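Can't attach files on this board, so I'm pasting raw text. These are the components:
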Amino acid sequence: MILYSFESNVNIYKMKKARKKFKFYSYTLLISPTGQKASNLREFLNILEQAEDRVIFHHLYQSHIRYDQKIGEFPSDYANWVAYELEDIALAEKLANFNPYDYKTVNEARKVLIEIIEEYIWDLPTIPWARPGSEFYFSSATTIVIPLGIEASDLKEFRDALDNIPDSSLYFHFYESRKIKKEKKYDDLSKWIENNFKKNELVKKIRGIDFYFFSVGETRKKLISILDSELKKV
Amino acid sequence: MTTLKDYEKIIDKKDIKQIESLASLSKGKKVIMVNSTKDGGGVSEILHRLVPLINELGICCEWKVISGNNGFFNITKNIHNALQGKRIKFLDEDLKKYIEVNKKNAESLKLDADIVIIHDPQPLPLIEFYKKSKAKWVWRCHIDISKPELNLWKFLKNYLVKYDASIFSMAKFSQKLPHPQYLIAPSIDPLSDKNRELKKSIVNDVLKKFNIKRDKPIILQVSRFDSFKDPIGVIKAYRLVKKEINCRLILAGGLAGDDPEGETVLEEVRKEAGDDPDINILLLKPKSDIEINALQRVADVVIQKSLKEGFGLTVTEAMWKAKPVIGGEVGGITIQLYNHRTGFLINSIEGAAYRIRYLLNRPSVSRKIGNSARDFVSHNYLITGHLRNYLALFYIMENPDKDIIHIR
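---
Top answer:
Structure tokens for the assembled complex are below.
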């Protein structure tokens, strides 16, 4: 017990401090239904073409915050609706493989999404319909991002913070932050490590996480495991 | 009294932290909630728990109730049913009375707040009788208004358009309105008498009180005696199951203060049950929370065979107790029960009977579904999440035109 404590202190002593602390933010999202709904794939496509960016953004990106395999195995609202309500598994598979983070803007992602569905519809003998009550209801969201009161000045504090931030906060820093500014390609977490520590391998590992296919909870476990391995080296 | 800190036993400390951060944005504001009953039904249950928590966080929150006689509540019950799709023709004099009672209430209710939240249709016209002020008025609709009776909807819309925002429990309940709409799911309180863990001795006392034996599997429906909850359909499903499995049915519920239709339905249910000794019809008094908790804990399968439903909090309560639940494929039940994962959705008496047999014959599947259901509720439908959404709403109402509010 005493030995462990001694080792732990040495680690803390050796830990390199960042030039700028990492400030974690709390992220709260309130969903706003638009009142629009699609009963079949054709209507769905028409609304996708006309909807505001914030509506597309909500269903393509923000919906990941509630991605839970208990209620749907695919990582987007669109793929789950097609799979469970239209019962068109082939299209659901195509949509599940579509990663919206591959595109710089919401509009680019929208165009590719529309192309996938248009091509698919082209060969269909009939348009799939949802039963009444199971239509796709379009929504957007308003988000409030405020300081959570948790900061990290070194990798140990950073790793510990990952145990203490809500899922929504991790979603914001690891998922949505990639899309807030157009020039941003990477998540907040790996960017902070890159800017403050010479840890190229660590940065590479974090950026290698296949985040779109994991729920936020699973991503948290991956991140913690990567950081724990790194801290053992110190 | 329960405090926010008490929830650390149930939810993650990190989620409490998020709630405190959000509350800090609206400290010092005043919010007034208005509904039509202090006792009975899901809305008053939620407000009993939510209002003290909002106050604890430094936001002044008052809860006011409109008053009216039986005649008024008969009309509002019809309005409630028509909004849920029942074809009812309203007499002009009834609608006039509905407005007059609201006007009378407006004379005595002082609604001087930054945000006024009006729950459900009973007090909806109140807004007409207050001078335009800085206060933001929000209509919080708890019922399924996806297909309201058209003439009534047109009439109510005249009042609704005056509001600054509306809140619905599900996207499918939303309507085309000229103001922002938000989604806030209702919730259960894991620390309330209705949902907290109970000692075995308390559960046994409840069973003794109602003279219920545990000699065979128990099927339970807890709900008000209301035709939309289809208690007659539940008895018919039980009879189909009974041909194959010797089981017991408990129908337990109360009569809400704002629902004069309840006694008629209860009489019909008693008639349908006849003298079957394995059907227990329990008319619960208001605040029978521990009794409901105990009954849900001893049930082998819980059913909520609603034909229309706002959200279906009795489903949530049973899921929280890790019970396998079978629910009608309507309203908010559809976003709680996912077939084979968190429960089963059914569309007929036969479907209900089939799923009851499916679960009673497979105890390990029932356990797995029950555990998954509890986990699902803890992530989505606890009062702490509900509180977080209200806190977000309070701040968003002050900044209605922004997509992202980023405070650094």
